[in-house]
């Protein structure tokens, strides 16, 4: 039985030995794993760890501000935000194939990050790999083709000439959360639902543009706030909105409206491999729907996704 206090002390000591005097870089997404990895390495070597937070324009409402507020202002990490919104959005223009979107975003991410690593003169790269990732990648070597080519920062090292540092390699997710709490990372980060690397690009079905992203961001924000308010956010494994490329007729006042259909996706799952749609009470769904229809211009109809995985996947793309 593994004492996590000791783990933290020993790991910091180990990291200090390995990395003191070195320049170290990390891609910080604001997700649980990368956050805990960064804070742990920061404890060991301080500002010699530079965390790079890439704003690719596909993040949720307030997300860049919240991440910078927690990691820069509150936890005092050396973190830079790269505003790469235009780069990503111009590359994605007119692209509707989900795998192409993932490929473009993955490659562009590497390019942005590579520039940062070079200009900082980094020799080491921190990654938030945890035990289940180690198992997964061992399996996927032999497995049949993946359904979706998951892009996250795990794709970084092969193309870069940096030594990899993976302080969480031996931990399970629940242990990572406990370590994060012990390191003083706020609950909002530790209990964050997973968010895909390609972000909202795979939640705007079809080609992505700024107008659609704005509609989706507002709707998603209302969904998440309402789930928090009603106590459902932490009971659900993942909840999000999806903007469909379908418009539907409605009435606004006494006029005909013709606006987008928005799908709400909420699932219960353990590791994301299988999932059940969440049995959220009707009154909560009602509140979500009313708030979105009243508050988000461009959405004319809200539907709830009642598909489990398999055969449906969690994301729509
Ligand atoms: P699916 O849609 O495959 O999703 O049932 C399972 C889990 O993986 C997340 N997901 C991704 N994560 N890059 C990521 O980092 C991706 O391209 C990607 N696609 C799906 C999804 O949000 C869910 O948690």
From TrEMBL:
Keywords assigned by UniProt, alphabetized: ATP-binding, Glutamine amidotransferase, GMP biosynthesis, Ligase, Nucleotide-binding, Purine biosynthesis
Domain GMPS ATP-PPase, chain residue ranges per copy: 2-192
Reaction equations catalysed: XMP + L-glutamine + ATP + H2O = GMP + L-glutamate + AMP + diphosphate + 2 H(+)
Domain of life according to the entry: Bacteria
Enzyme Commission number, as recorded: 6.3.5.2
Subunit record text: Homodimer.
Function: Catalyzes the synthesis of GMP from XMP.
Designated name of the protein: GMP synthase [glutamine-hydrolyzing]
Source species of the chain: Pseudothermotoga hypogea DSM 11164 = NBRC 106472
Residues of the full protein shown: 188 to 504 of 504
């Amino acid at each position: 039985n593994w004492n996590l206090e000791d783990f933290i002390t020993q790991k910091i000591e180990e990291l200090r030995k390995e990395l003191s005097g070195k320049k170290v870089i990390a891609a910080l997404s604001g997700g649980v794993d990368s956050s805990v990895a960064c804070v742990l390495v920061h404890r060991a070597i301080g500002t010699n760890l530079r965390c790079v937070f890439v704003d690719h324009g596909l993040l949720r409402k307030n997300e860049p501000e919240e991440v910078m507020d927690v990691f820069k202002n509150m936890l005092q990490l050396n973190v830079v935000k790269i505003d790469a919104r235009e780069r990503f959005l111009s590359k994605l223009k007119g692209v509707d194939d989900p795998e192409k979107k993932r490929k473009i975003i993955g490659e562009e991410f590497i390019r942005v990050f590579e520039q940062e690593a070079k200009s900082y003169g980094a020799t080491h790269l921190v990654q938030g790999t945890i035990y289940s990732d180690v198992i997964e990648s061992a399996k996927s070597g032999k497995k049949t083709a993946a359904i979706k080519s998951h892009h996250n920062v795990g794709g970084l090292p092969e193309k870069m000439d940096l030594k990899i540092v993976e302080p969480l390699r031996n931990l399970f997710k629940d242990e990572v959360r406990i370590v994060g709490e012990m390191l003083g990372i706020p609950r909002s980060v530790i209990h964050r639902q997973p968010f895909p690397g390609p972000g909202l690009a795979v939640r705007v079905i079809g080609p992505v543009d700024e107008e659609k992203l704005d509609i989706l961001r507002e709707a998603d924000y209302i969904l998440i706030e309402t789930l928090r308010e009603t106590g459902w956010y932490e009971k659900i494994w993942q909840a999000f909105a999806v903007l469909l490329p379908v418009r539907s007729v409605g009435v606004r006042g006494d006029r005909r409206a013709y606006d987008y259909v928005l799908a709400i996706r909420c699932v219960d799952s353990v590791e994301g491999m299988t999932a059940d749609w969440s049995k959220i009470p009707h009154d909560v769904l009602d509140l979500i729907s009313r708030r979105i229809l009243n508050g988000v211009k461009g959405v004319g109809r809200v539907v709830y996704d009642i598909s489990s995985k398999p055969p449906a996947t969690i994301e729509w793309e």
